[in-house]
Amino acid sequence: VSDMNASLESLYSACNMQSDTVPLLQNGQHARSQPPASASKPAQPQASPRQKVQRSQPVHILAVRRLQEEDQQFRTSSLPAIPNPFPELCGPGSPPVVTASSLPPPTQAPTKQDVKVFSEDGTSKVVEILTDMTARDLCQLLVYKSHCVDDNSWTLVEHHPHLGLERFLEDHELVVQVEGTMGSESKFLFRKNYAKYEFFKNPVNFFPEQMVTWCQQSNGSQTQLLQNFLNASSCPEIQGFLHVKELGRKSWKKLYVCLRRSGLYCSTKGTSKEPRHLQLLADLEESNIFFLIAGKKQYSAPTDHGLCIKPNKVKNEAKELRLLCAEDEQTRICWMTAFRLLKYGMLLYQNYRIPQQRKALLSPFATPVRSVSENSLVAMDFSGQTGRVIENPAEAQSAALEEGHAWRKRSMRMNILGSQSPLHPSTLSTVIHRTQHWFHGRITREESHRIIKQQGLVDGLFLLRDSQSNPKAFVLTLCHHQKIKNFQILPFEDEGQTFFTLDDGNTKFSDLIQLVDFYQLNKGVLPCKLKHHCIRVAL
């Protein structure tokens, strides 16, 4: 009882100290509206704490929720009004004061969503991403999960099998937003594309001269061409003949087409570009451009180089698709690149520059291709009495090649002398290449051409496959000047050993790995060096 009395007295003393500044009513509420007591009244004598506490009388306790509401109301009303910094934006009847209702709603945090991505071999992976994740971020995540080398050429492809369309997403596009415009049968593919930013690497020779006209005089330099395309105030025009499919019909017409920032137009009178002769075919704002996968078979296209302008609202209907067809692959790539440049402008150039800026910030020894153990190795020369470090890069490269050749000769001698190698050297040389990413096995010529077209028609893009006509031979499929060429690799017998050659035995290699390594450094009989290899990864 004494402890309870002491606690009540301390509580009362705290309330009595607060009553000096804010008067209280009997139920504990603040008396804000009561006027202060006049000074003429005599001061009441202060009673002792024990006289004021009457334990026999009940105390009215308000509900907790009501107390919280009244306390919140008191705090809100007691806060000073925030002056509006933009009174001219207020209406005539609204006060120039920022109220709680006039403040913008709080921004919602990005949520998580599952996205299913397929690879070229049919395997798939479900990835949990944020709703604000871009296509570049998702590609880097898939590269990390698939243990691939991130060379900034991986892309996310929007694939519509029922419409026969596909396109690669731009790096800045939101994956969840694009997925909302796709039908139930559509899907994402994870694929290489080396030609995504080929225009920025060589803009002068990209577009034919008769295909582009400018509103202002251009000096033809690389910088001027980039500025004309990326500057929103410039008015470049891409013009030329295309086969256009009529809406709702199966017939195609060859028309003179002009692409501007405002849209795609066709001329109703020859090659005239007067406003009265131009008819709008498609708008660039709410649409995207796609490749036609099988235009001849599905849409009776005159050539295999078809493209399509698809509105974002269209998911499964082919009636509203604007189908076009070019005469060759180079013309199709030019039209699709021009569409992307006029639609995205400077944003497309920023996507191209971001990987280069990141690469410039990295240390020259922190390249993603080499491992940590390889970075710690140095080239040494032990031909003299003491070893020395080889500082010349060319000499170090030749020393590495000589060491590799010596290792192969030494291993072949050990196999001939009866070592415990599980494979005979001739058997090893015929199967070792099957572990490489650039070897695609038993695929047809048409399939190899399709893979190279999908991964970008750039110089030096290649793959190797089994020959269909000769079971002991192989075929090198190479892209040069946007054309695909095939070179047969034949077996060659010399002193009882089997070699492989591309030039009738003038240059011989013990296996296909040596052949690819050689032609990556030397052009030889090929039109260009081997630079990029087509790759398929399993997710």
TrEMBL record:
<dbReference type="InterPro" id="IPR011993">
    <property type="entry name" value="PH-like_dom_sf"/>
</dbReference>
<dbReference type="InterPro" id="IPR039665">
    <property type="entry name" value="PH_APBB1IP"/>
</dbReference>
<dbReference type="GO" id="GO:0030178">
    <property type="term" value="P:negative regulation of Wnt signaling pathway"/>
</dbReference>
<keyword id="KW-0727">SH2 domain</keyword>
<dbReference type="InterPro" id="IPR015042">
    <property type="entry name" value="BPS-dom"/>
</dbReference>
<dbReference type="GO" id="GO:0070371">
    <property type="term" value="P:ERK1 and ERK2 cascade"/>
</dbReference>
<dbReference type="Pfam" id="PF21989">
    <property type="entry name" value="RA_2"/>
</dbReference>
<dbReference type="InterPro" id="IPR035037">
    <property type="entry name" value="Grb10_SH2"/>
</dbReference>
<feature type="region of interest" description="Disordered">
    <location>
        <begin position="90"/>
        <end position="112"/>
    </location>
</feature>
<feature type="compositionally biased region" description="Low complexity">
    <location>
        <begin position="31"/>
        <end position="51"/>
    </location>
</feature>
<dbReference type="GO" id="GO:0030949">
    <property type="term" value="P:positive regulation of vascular endothelial growth factor receptor signaling pathway"/>
</dbReference>
<protein>
    <submittedName>
        <fullName>Growth factor receptor bound protein 10</fullName>
    </submittedName>
</protein>
<comment type="similarity">
    <text>Belongs to the GRB7/10/14 family.</text>
</comment>
<dbReference type="GO" id="GO:0030159">
    <property type="term" value="F:signaling receptor complex adaptor activity"/>
</dbReference>
<dbReference type="GO" id="GO:0010467">
    <property type="term" value="P:gene expression"/>
</dbReference>
<dbReference type="Pfam" id="PF00169">
    <property type="entry name" value="PH"/>
</dbReference>
<feature type="domain" description="Ras-associating">
    <location>
        <begin position="111"/>
        <end position="195"/>
    </location>
</feature>
<feature type="domain" description="PH">
    <location>
        <begin position="235"/>
        <end position="344"/>
    </location>
</feature>
<dbReference type="GO" id="GO:1904738">
    <property type="term" value="P:vascular associated smooth muscle cell migration"/>
</dbReference>
<dbReference type="GO" id="GO:0046325">
    <property type="term" value="P:negative regulation of D-glucose import"/>
</dbReference>
<dbReference type="GO" id="GO:0005737">
    <property type="term" value="C:cytoplasm"/>
</dbReference>
<feature type="domain" description="SH2">
    <location>
        <begin position="438"/>
        <end position="534"/>
    </location>
</feature>
<dbReference type="GO" id="GO:0005158">
    <property type="term" value="F:insulin receptor binding"/>
</dbReference>
<dbReference type="InterPro" id="IPR036860">
    <property type="entry name" value="SH2_dom_sf"/>
</dbReference>
<keyword id="KW-0597">Phosphoprotein</keyword>
<dbReference type="Pfam" id="PF00017">
    <property type="entry name" value="SH2"/>
</dbReference>
<dbReference type="InterPro" id="IPR000980">
    <property type="entry name" value="SH2"/>
</dbReference>
<feature type="region of interest" description="Disordered">
    <location>
        <begin position="27"/>
        <end position="57"/>
    </location>
</feature>
<dbReference type="InterPro" id="IPR000159">
    <property type="entry name" value="RA_dom"/>
</dbReference>
<dbReference type="InterPro" id="IPR001849">
    <property type="entry name" value="PH_domain"/>
</dbReference>
<dbReference type="InterPro" id="IPR029071">
    <property type="entry name" value="Ubiquitin-like_domsf"/>
</dbReference>
<dbReference type="GO" id="GO:0008286">
    <property type="term" value="P:insulin receptor signaling pathway"/>
</dbReference>
<dbReference type="GO" id="GO:0046627">
    <property type="term" value="P:negative regulation of insulin receptor signaling pathway"/>
</dbReference>
<dbReference type="Pfam" id="PF08947">
    <property type="entry name" value="BPS"/>
</dbReference>
<dbReference type="GO" id="GO:0032991">
    <property type="term" value="C:protein-containing complex"/>
</dbReference>
<dbReference type="InterPro" id="IPR039664">
    <property type="entry name" value="GRB/APBB1IP"/>
</dbReference>
<dbReference type="GO" id="GO:0048009">
    <property type="term" value="P:insulin-like growth factor receptor signaling pathway"/>
</dbReference>
<keyword id="KW-0963">Cytoplasm</keyword>
<dbReference type="GO" id="GO:0120162">
    <property type="term" value="P:positive regulation of cold-induced thermogenesis"/>
</dbReference>
